[in-house]
Design brief:
The chain is mainly α and about 525 residues long. The protein is about 45% helix and about 10% strand. The strands form six sheets. The protein has a three-stranded parallel sheet with strand order 1-2-3. The structure holds one RNA strand of 75 nucleotides.
Length: about 525
RNA sequence: GUCCCGUUGGGCGAGUGGGCAAGCCGUCACUCUUUCACAGUGGAGACACCGGUUCGAACCCGGUACGGGAUACCA
């Protein structure tokens, strides 16, 4: 099947907020689809009714949208293969048909075992020191299924509506080979594969059956998913084969896991690193547990997507900053790693910082203005206007990682400091420096043109006249204005505050600091 | 336990048999700004281990160790 249209899908279960690992899977699917001019679909795999979480689907769509992943087809946008929710497709009888087909061809069978019987079987096998207790070619011979029961008995049970599942009949000892775009050839013996349930007793298909049927019907060309699926891939190969679809099955790619920053193990829903694990804020409706999102933490979606792309992939060049279009251009599965990638909070912040620097001041001001309004109860920006906020942003963005830090870093642009950095005061404040600050206030008061250059010139002149070493009082001057020992370029900041405000703050400082 | 996947500096990662093993984050130092940062320059820091193949191995093969994943009528 050469020249088959490239179609990839992201197929999450609506069991909670979409974790950033899930977003990465979606992103890789999306990048590959777009790189080859294909389609990106969103399918919801809600076959487990007991784990269904309300609002999860909406969250998934919103998270993808925010990240910049556009859905061509599927839930939320529709398309020629609708419906795209497996629970709805089940109602149409789509999966049962193929399960029946497998029964007919002898590759699947009915199993009537109760949960207790299954449990007893596992215990029995464990007691017998069987390495991997499972429902398979050997153990099924001692269970209640259409392979051990007579045709009559089976029919009777079915007619009586006895609860049952349909299981895949996995051969006892057969080599299963499959090719993974990222990992190469993988070989597993069928003795390691259990007789997977295809259709549950409630009539719902399991993931194993459902995703294969849907991928076929939706003409998916590449199935890209997390590494946790690798062990069940051999079973999937068998299903494709028995359905007669092996020749046209999607190419497989199993993505490496994202590991937590400290120690080992899969990245979980909570992490001590302090960074969010979810793209957007998420509150679980049943447990009321809530998690913060990247968006709400002040991350730019471009930075988030860029960071995610580098978790397990790299372009092979030294370029690290990529727009979505550039990612699409550069992406390939050949450059996806096999080993798990540790999530690096520091690097993640760095990405956001890079994007922050590139943003136009006006764009940042638009984000920051509401914060200023809120924090000052509508007072701070008043009379100073958008232009003032823009200039503040211009000064602050050089040292920030997030817009959300702007207020703490630059609130003195809007309200006078009510406290002064104790360390600096302790170190620098004395009779001489106090005198200098007072003198500076006076000099500034008499100035005309209050530019950064002029302010600096007068500052130095005043230092000379009072016999003060400028280096000794420069940081002090900063503290008098902002309360803080560090901050934006000093005289730029002075100019922006304006003459009157600067003089006032200096005078206040002289009075307040002892 | 069994099966599968993996293992290059503190983190991410380039590298696919042949000149001193890229780059980024972090860290340290220096420079610059007579402050704090930013920036620039430089430093320290790695091929898990043991065998084998080869004139030659981070790259190929085997074993060991370590890590991860899977082992459900969950996905």
């Amino acid at each position: 099947m050469e020249n088959k249209r490239v179609r990839l899908r992201f197929a999450p279960s609506p069991t909670g907020g979409l974790h950033m690992g899930g977003v990465r899977t979606a992103l890789f699917n999306y990048l590959f689809a777009k790189k080859h001019g294909g389609d990106f679909l969103l399918r919801i795999e809600d076959t487990d009714q007991t784990r269904y979480v309300k609002g999860a689907e909406e969250y998934i769509v919103a998270a993808l949208n925010w990240t910049g992943i556009k859905i061509d087809e599927g839930v939320s946008v529709g398309g020629p293969h609708a419906p795209y929710r497996q629970s709805e497709r089940k109602e149409l009888g789509i999966y049962k048909k193929y399960a029946d087909q497998l029964i007919q061809s002898g590759h699947a069978y009915y199993a009537f075992d109760t949960a207790e019987e299954l449990d007893a079987m596992r215990k029995r096998l464990e007691a017998a020191k069987v390495a991997a207790p499972q429902y398979n070619a050997v153990s099924r011979q001692n269970m209640r299924n259409s392979l051990t029961l007579s045709e009559d008995e089976t029919k009777k049970l079915l007619d009586a509506g006895t609860p049952h599942v349909i299981r895949l009949k996995v051969p006892r000892n057969e080599e299963i080979r499959f090719h993974d775009i990222i990992r190469g050839w993988v070989v597993v013996n069928s003795s390691q594969v259990d007789d997977k349930v295809l259709l549950k007793s409630d009539g719902m298909p399991t993931y194993h059956l459902a995703h294969i049927v849907d991928d076929k019907l939706m003409e998916i060309s590449h199935a890209v998913r997390g590494e946790e699926w690798l062990p069940s891939a051999p079973a999937h190969i068998l299903i494709y084969r028995y359905l007669g679809w092996e020749e046209t099955m999607p190419q497989l790619a199993h993505l490496p896991l994202i590991l937590k920053p400290d120690g080992n193990g899969k990245l979980s829903k909570r992490d001590k690193s302090g960074l969010p694990m979810f793209p957007l804020n998420w509150t679980d409706p049943s447990t009321n547990e809530s998690y913060i999102g990247y968006r709400e933490s002040g991350f730019f979606p471009e930075a988030f997507a860029n960071m995610l792309a580098f978790l397990g992939w790299n372009p092979g060049t030294t370029q690290e900053l990529f727009s979505m279009d550039e990612l699409i251009q550069a992406f390939s599965f050949e450059r996806v790693n096999k080993s798990g990638a540790k999530f690096d909070p520091e690097k993640t912040k760095w990405f956001n910082q890079q994007y922050l620097r590139k943003k136009a001041d006006s764009e940042l001001a638009a984000l920051f203005a509401p914060v200023v309004e809120e924090k000052t109860n509508g007072q701070g920006a008043k009379g100073k206007g958008q232009d003032y906020i823009e200039k503040v942003c211009k000064l602050i963005k050089e040292k920030a990682h997030f817009v959300s830090e702007f207020w703490e870093m630059g609130k003195f642009f809007f309200i006078a400091p009510d406290a002064y950095d104790a360390d600096v005061i302790k170190k620098r404040w004395n009779e001489g420096s106090a005198k200098f600050i007072a003198a500076l206030a006076t000099e500034y008061k008499n100035m005309g043109d209050f530019t950064a250059a002029e302010a600096e010139r007068v500052f130095k002149a005043t230092a000379e006249n009072t016999g003060t070493n400028p280096g000794q009082v420069m940081q002090l001057f900063r503290v008098c204005l902002s309360g803080m020992g560090g901050g934006p370029v000093l005289f730029e900041m002075t100019e922006l505050l304006g003459k009157d405000e600067v003089v006032k703050r200096l005078e206040t400082a002289v009075q307040k600091i002892k």
